[in-house]
Amino acid sequence: MSGFSRTKKSVQADVRSALAWLKRHSSRATLAGMARYAIPSDNALGVAMKDIKALGKKLGRNHELAAALWETGVYEARMAASFVDDPAQVTPAQMDHWCKDFDNWALCDALSFNLFDRTPHAWSKVRQWSRKRNEFEKRTAFALLWSLTVHDKGSGNGPFLEGLAIIEREAGDERHFVKKAVNMALRAIGKRNPALHAAAVAVAGRLAASSDPTSRWTGRDAMRELAGPSVRKRLKAGGAPI
User: Fold this and answer.
1) Does the structure show a pLDDT above 60 at 171?
2) How far apart are CA 63 and CA 70, in angstroms?
3) Measured by CB atoms within 10 angstroms of the end CB, which terminus of the chain is less buried, N or C?
4) 219 near 204, Cβ under 8 Å?
């Protein structure tokens, strides 16, 4: 896509080209549908995720361009930045800055799964953000923990056991987008390998017996999947995390 060549064009020219591309791929139907998924549309164009991902692929990795896309404040441009930024160049300060800007669950999850979990700072941010008061900053801690269960192939069980302790500590947060991410992180850790499955089932059991209604919901809901035959069969067969 020659329109995105950066050999002689400024980053800002690339941003303008990217925004024009997004506008051409936007639709009123997609914009209207965002509300059904609790995604604010005030700063959105209405572009399908498959097209945002395609744009990211066309743009390629570029740290400066990702930062400029983020600063537009446009929802789709920020989502594209998750595919464009170079994880090796992302700093802890940048992660904090972007995380503070999150105003919906989709940005939390996209940045966690597409970018943050590939940085060398991921685990420290799980620990840090899990204590945040802002709903979406705190959600990102658990979305990031969830994504690490899938993409962190090098870590042993230690960090994930610490993650289970964080989950148990924070499971009483009743806010919708936090408790859903806590639940997903618990289930994901329990599907990583047999040892972590046993540890996650123990945590789920304690939460299910809690007097706190949010903790109890998280434990019971996770237990339904973790104790089910499909997870046990997959783990017994030595399959990859699911």
Assistant:
1) yes
2) 11
3) N
4) yes
